[in-house]
Specification:
It is built from nine helices and seven strands, in the order βββαβαβββααααααα. By secondary structure, the chain is α+β, with helices and mostly antiparallel strands. It has two domains: about 170 residues, Glutaredoxin (3-Layer(aba) Sandwich); about 110 residues, Glutathione S-transferase Yfyf (Class Pi), Chain A, domain 2. Helix 4 packs antiparallel against helix 6 and helix 7 packs across helix 9.
Amino acid sequence: MGYMVNGVYHVGDDVTQTLPDGEWQRARSDVRNWITDDGAPGPTGEGGFAAEPHRYHLFVAWNCPWAHRALLTRALKGLTDMISLSVARPNRDEQGWIFDASGEFSDPLFGASAIHEVYSKDHVPYTGRLTVPVLWDKKTGRMVSNESADMVRMFNSAFVSLSPDTTNLYPKKLQHQIDEWNDLIYRTVNNGVYRAGFASTQQAYEKAAIEVFETLDRIDAHLGQSRYLCGDDLTEADIRLFPTLARFDVAYHYAFRCNLKKLQDYSNLWPYARRIYHLPGVRETVHFDIYKQGYFSKNEKRNPLGIIPIGPPVDWSETDR
């Protein structure tokens, strides 16, 4: 897919992501500055990134679940008109995430043809994988962050005085509980489906896939007693779980062999997912056909012919309040 060394793009894999036992590991995000209300430094990185309308731009792909986290928070916090957007094509090539010259999958900010062109514009020469989402500061011409978890948190907290939405997705009284859910869900569900899908041994695949369903079973039981993961109100934990649920039946169940159950088989998890889907602004961030294009794109190991399945039919239209 490609990588950069000191700001120079190279075609190929940057580092091996497969451990000796066949388990797959995700590389870390390296650009972690923060937007804050007054531009003061955040938990990591440098300061100087104050919350201002129309100053920031988000580079995403509809099918990327990590980008989906940022898109969800941007929508739920009423920031869609304040933070502009470039959407990459669902299929990557040797240039990585790519853009068309015009249309839905183009870059209105720079007219870039690939995401590595965006990374190369930062004044700090970048080394590492070329991922989305990328949060860009139009005022200083710098990357703010390529870590989606940080974006969720800064979109929730930095724009309070500018956002029409007053919901706090990370309230202090629930932070410990949210962090516990985030840790479990990231390890065994968000990243777990990838560990199953990219495993190179039977043992590594089975370990990852079983952990996925153990956690989904646990969440389903919990939701029998709770409207959302941390009580009656939506929190950051729900935002970090939902992108995996939205992709589960149309992609992970088949393409990543996470096929013990479908999301639709869960008595509590399925209506919970539909409840989130019908929240204002969420539906516009969900693109099931694009998910299939991305996850069933031509791949030597997973889908060598690049044939995209016509199913399965999944009806998210029923509301569950």
